[in-house]
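Quick question, first post here. What does this chain look like in 3D?
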Amino acid sequence: MELAFSPEERAFADEVRTFIQNNLPRDISERVEHDLHMQRDDSMRWQQILAKKGWHAYTWPVSQGGPGWNATQRFIFEVVSGELNCPTIQPFGPRMVGPVIYNFGTEAQKEQHLPGIRDSTVWWCQGYSEPQSGSDLASLATRAEDHGDHYVVNGQKIWTSYAHFADWMFCLVRTGREARPQSGISFLLIDMKSPGVVVQPIPMLEGTHSFNAVFLTDVKVPKANLVGEEGKGWSYAKFLLEHERVENSNIGFSTFALRRLHRVASEVKSQGKPLIDDPLFRGKVSTVEAQLKALEMNTLRALSSMGSGSSPGAGIASSLKIRGTEIGQRITELLFEAAGAEGQHLDPALMHGEGDLSGIEASVRGAPANYFWRRAMSIYGGSNEIQRNIIAKHVLGL
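> Answer (accepted):
Ran it through. Tokens below.
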């Protein structure tokens, strides 16, 4: 919190810090401190604590039951949460489908779904990518056939984060075959308990399970679950993705990861001295710190634009996503380097919280798994290569 904030903003930061210090369960804090895999109960427990304070849907306006924070307050909340080892708030409900529902949904949809998102009693997942439609999302093939009062959905989604935890999925489906592929896409809400929904896990290299393939076979979805107009789902998806990519600057993750890097480098020895005293390594850490500070400023500028009612633009959102993932990955690379020989052993059990988590050894032993897992940062949410194409098209006019 080194930026020049007003007295009111510093008081707000103190309020957030005090609440977290008094309410964040220690076992959850320890798991986050070492960047260990979180289970559904871990995330839901903390999110429900925030919900009782009215802070789970912290990006929402007061009119929708949120705290009505401005861009600076949201930024402060994220940075302080990162400093104090809070779990990342799962974005699928409050930051993704929630705003789509309260901006484009029916009153019945708002009444049915918004309370569960605000209170963190319902877990959502995102049904976008398909085996042949990842970066080229407009080519998706999952179809929803009109059967009067309901659709029948058939297809497959892949890389669906935490679908095995989810109660509901917001899903892009094809309802038309217009010449322009984006014109035939609709936005459906699908109950994951519906007959015909099958979730197949995709284990990760380091032994954790976050991603899934979701198979949809003759799944009946009521017409009441269509958000907005049929065939306008691409517009709602762009609205969601643009806001998601601003959030994907990963400020919270990079903040606590940088703290962990300092802690490891201060305790690991190199030639009898703390590694952080080595000028070459200290220079690497200083470089990434400066990059993170610049990213914080640009993220705050984009959030301020959103807070004033304007869009940050696809180019800005994409550039923040690229830089945020690059910085996050660089910090995990330095953690891997700092761990040295002691961190060369891949310990999948540690990622599930098994063993002693009280000392720096857990961060050292967890460095390889964290490094491998964070390779995905530059792929999910739209690969960095695709983000550069977006910037080339919308900013440079190429």
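The longest helix spans residues 279-307.
The mean pLDDT is 88.
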